[in-house]
Amino acid sequence: LPDCDCIWSDWFDTTYPDASDKNSGDYETFENIGKKYPSWECAKVENVSCRAEKFPTTPIADLGQKVECSVDVGLICNNKDQQIGGIIPMPVCLNYEISVCCTPNYPECLPTPSTPSTTPSTASPTTSSVSTPISTTAPTPTAGPTPSSTT
């Protein structure tokens, strides 16, 4: 049986906000990702992580911008929704990136209409990615806890 846990994509950056156009913004939507990367496949979006390109370690909530980052659409930031102040001195969206956690496109991983309710089997019941439906910070690039040594 294949591993059906969601798999994180690389960071996508499909659009760039136009600072001179109030009706512009940054739109890292699943539709735009599919247009720019036709080979990208996602059977089911399980989770998303969004970050500002120039501030990858700063949580989006701390950037002072109105941004939607969701498993429904991806990332949407409209210039017209931004206020002067925050991390940049103009009412313009920052350039954002999105990483998507997708269920693999294997028939065994997709829900079957014939079974009314099934419990997905997971190799490790302590996975933290399942408990958080939407993440607005970048995935931590560390391999695990820092080992402690005693002399």
TrEMBL record:
Residues 113-151 are annotated as: Disordered. Its main location: secreted. The lineage of its organism: Eukaryota, Metazoa, Chordata, Craniata, Vertebrata. This is MUC2 protein. It comes from Toxostoma redivivum (California thrasher). Residues 8-102 form the WxxW domain. GO terms for cellular component: extracellular region. It is found in: Secreted. Keywords: Glycoprotein, Secreted, Signal.
